[in-house]
Every structure is written in C-alpha cells, then in structure tokens.
Amino acid sequence: MSDWRFCPRCAARLVAGDEGGRRRQVCEAGCGFVHWDNPAPVLAALVEYEGRILLARNRAWAPGAFGLITGFLERDEDPAAGVAREVREELGLSSGAATLIGVYPFARRHEVLIAYHLPAHGEIRLNEELAEFRLIAREKLKPWDFGTGLAVRDWLASPLR
Predict the structure, then answer these.
(1) What is the pTM of this model?
(2) Exposed/middle/buried for 53, CB within 10 Å: 0-12, 13-18, 19+?
(3) Pick the CATH number of 40-157 from 3.90.79.10, 3.20.20.10, 1.10.490.160, 3.40.50.1100
(4) pLDDT tens-digit series, residues 2-23
C-alpha cells in the first residue's frame, strides 16, 4: 500500500479497507474516496535510426547503462502519438509510424510499459535528461531481463521486424 495518510477530498484519515477485491486505502469518514494506487502508464520507444537501434543513457543512470527511450503518457494522449512525442522531445528526431511491440508490467517502478518500434530520422539532439546514446546493429542487440528489455526480446523474436 502507498504511504498516503489523509483523504484528498475531505482530509479525514485513510484506513485499510476492502475495495474492488483488494486491500486499499479508503476514507475513514466515508466520503467515498478510494486510493486505487494504479500503476503509471509509461511509453517506451525502440528507435530504429539509419538501420540501427538507438539506446540512450539517462543522466541519472550509471555509466554503461543504456535503454530504450521512455516517458509518461500524458492525459488524453494517444499512446502512438505520445511515443513519437517522446522521441522528438528526447532525441530531436521525427519518426514514422509507431508499431506496437507489447504491454509489460514493471512492478519495480509501479508502472505499465507500452512499447513501440519507431523508425526515426533527422539529426540527433539529446535533451537535458540524456547523457549519451549508442547505435547498435540489430544482430548485436541483446535484450535484458526486466523492464523495456522484455520489449527488445519480443521485437527481436518477431517475424515482422
């Protein structure tokens, strides 16, 4: 359960209660508020650039740690449009049509990942979030066993790529 202590509607204390088949935080005063604590939707882009796959390192990550381009889905945003927005914001690239790879739970960060493959073009201009990037030949790309690595695994195994 989350660490919320008070109801955002009426300021009463939140207590554990059964709601929707699970233990959740509910308003003690009975105003009807339930803290559902749903995971955040995150978009992931497997970016294909000049025939290679672009992996990037976030400034907060350890040197040598690279991954897909990711970002949060905005309210009322189509996921395919959102992943193209993330590629534009983080890399300065325009992208072609986004193809869904899959949807993956990422419990460690309380997120659900929606992963797409996107061909991209233009001049790479990293935004302030990213420290560096690498371009990897498809045949040298290796998936990792968590988070966006599962999307890399599925994309590599797909006969459609």
Answers:
(1) 0.85
(2) buried
(3) 3.90.79.10
(4) 678 999 999 999 999 999 899 9
